[in-house]
């Protein structure tokens, strides 16, 4: 098979790495890719939103399967564009990717089908939102409706913070058109858990659990980011929690989308909050998480090509999805100043130390090959992942491997997975 992967981050590197393990695959392309993905794939200079060029490339190269890693092209209808030309592609169509593309849509869906989530209200007018917030309980959560690189969520502890938040999202348009509509949501407390799943329109099979660390600083301080690290599995995701979610959240979501005429095929990423009243949905994503993919895929035993094809063909019920009985931790190495302002172009040293080391991986998020070598090319630069027999061993291994890498203005959190010490 010839496979095309669309994207350029750590998630796409993890997907390429996993696809390369399939005996069914002879050739991998990635558009546009990055310096790490080059190890497994031929990178082509086509951007993820250039649908016409991607479709033309897939036809010219007789691509057998295209895998879309990123949210923007999915929400904008890349799958529809490929299917219109008779091309096989893994991911939800535009009318299903709205599950991530509009928080207002997903909240309304959960309300209609009694899927547990936080209480909320939706606003398209800033003055109406401000009037509502005058009577609201705090803390409270403000969410830009559309895609905002994982950063469009503001937790407001006071009315003053909430007023500033409305201005940021709806008036100043910090997140662009994503802020034309805003969701105001009840603040929930508890443990956050990420559960990724494969879906074929009717059947859903969940992957192993994980937990992301969104804030830039140690102790969950600082600004929201695209993710500073993850661990898998979550010790807080018990068999009891899993049973509840399977009954009231996972299958219910798939069935709800089908009932709405929005058959979902691809990945549903469930962001959950384990509250005192039980699990609640924080948000849906319509693709692999980043950096959740970097800890989940290294633990996956099943051939990913078989799973992708089963999702497309509606035969997921025939797949025995298996994961290793171990753990993985990913620590993101970022550029100091991320997610606001940072410099790029610094040479990365130590990448060769991961070669032939079983259970240690370095996934590139923002890197570029130059005459000087591989250099930093983004806010999140690398995801250093390590496995272990349990979470504590995996965490120790990951932080040991972090020291193998060096580049100017290297920054990372020192407490990824610290919650596991409390489990």
Automatic annotation (TrEMBL):
Catalysed reaction equations from the record: 5-phospho-beta-D-ribosylamine + glycine + ATP = N(1)-(5-phospho-beta-D-ribosyl)glycinamide + ADP + phosphate + H(+)
Domain ATP-grasp: 107-313
A UniProt-annotated Pfam family: GARS_C
Record carries keyword Ligase: yes
Molecular function in Gene Ontology: phosphoribosylamine-glycine ligase activity
InterPro entries in the record: ATP-grasp, ATP_grasp_subdomain_1, PreATP-grasp_dom_sf, PRibGlycinamid_synth_ATP-grasp, PRibGlycinamide_synth, PRibGlycinamide_synth_C-dom, PRibGlycinamide_synth_C_sf, PRibGlycinamide_synth_CS
Name of this chain's protein: Phosphoribosylamine--glycine ligase
Naturally occurring in which organism (per UniProt): Hominisplanchenecus faecis
């Amino acid at each position: 098979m010839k496979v095309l992967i669309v994207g350029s981050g750590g998630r796409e590197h993890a997907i390429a790495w996993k696809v390369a393990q399939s005996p069914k695959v002879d050739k991998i392309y990635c558009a546009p890719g990055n310096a790490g993905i080059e190890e497994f794939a031929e990178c082509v200079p086509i951007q993820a939103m250039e649908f016409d060029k991607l479709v033309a490339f897939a036809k010219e190269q007789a691509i057998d399967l295209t895998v879309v890693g990123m949210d923007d092209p999915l929400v904008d209808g890349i799958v529809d564009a490929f299917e219109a030309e008779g091309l096989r592609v893994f991911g939800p169509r535009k009318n299903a990717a709205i599950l991530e593309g509009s928080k207002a849509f997903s909240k309304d869906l959960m309300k209609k089908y009694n899927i547990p989530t936080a209480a909320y209200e939706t606003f398209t007018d800033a003055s109406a939102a401000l009037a509502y917030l005058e009577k609201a309980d705090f803390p409270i959560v403000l969410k830009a409706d559309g895609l905002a690189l994982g950063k469009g969520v503001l937790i407001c502890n006071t009315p003053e913070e909430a007023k500033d938040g409305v201005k940021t999202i709806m008036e100043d348009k910090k997140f662009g058109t994503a802020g034309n509509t805003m969701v105001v949501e009840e603040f929930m407390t508890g443990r956050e858990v990420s559960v990724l799943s494969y879906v074929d329109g009717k059947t859903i099979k969940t992957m192993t659990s994980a937990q992301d660390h969104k804030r830039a600083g140690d102790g969950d301080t600082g600004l929201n980011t695209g993710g500073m690290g993850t661990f898998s599995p979550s010790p807080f995701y018990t068999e009891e929690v899993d049973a509840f979610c399977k009954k009231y959240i996972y299958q219910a979501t798939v069935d709800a989308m089908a009932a709405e005429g929005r058959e979902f095929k691809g990945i549903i990423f469930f962001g959950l909050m384990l509250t005192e009243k039980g699990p609640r949905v924080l948000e849906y994503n319509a693709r692999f998480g980043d950096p959740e993919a970097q800890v989940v895929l290294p633990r996956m035993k099943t051939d990913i090509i078989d799973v992708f094809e089963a999702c497309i063909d509606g035969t997921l019920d025939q797949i025995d999805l298996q994961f290793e009985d171990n753990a993985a931790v990913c620590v993101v190495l970022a550029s100091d100043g991320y997610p606001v302002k940072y410099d790029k172009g610094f040479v990365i040293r130590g990448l060769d130390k991961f070669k032939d080391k079983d259970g240690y991986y370095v996934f590139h998020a923002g890197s570029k090959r130059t005459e000087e070598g591989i250099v930093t090319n983004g806010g999140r630069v690398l995801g250093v992942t390590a496995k272990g027999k349990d979470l504590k061993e995996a965490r120790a291994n990951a932080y040991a491997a972090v020291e193998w890498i060096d580049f100017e203005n290297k920054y990372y959190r020192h407490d990824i997975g610290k919650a596991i010490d409390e489990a």
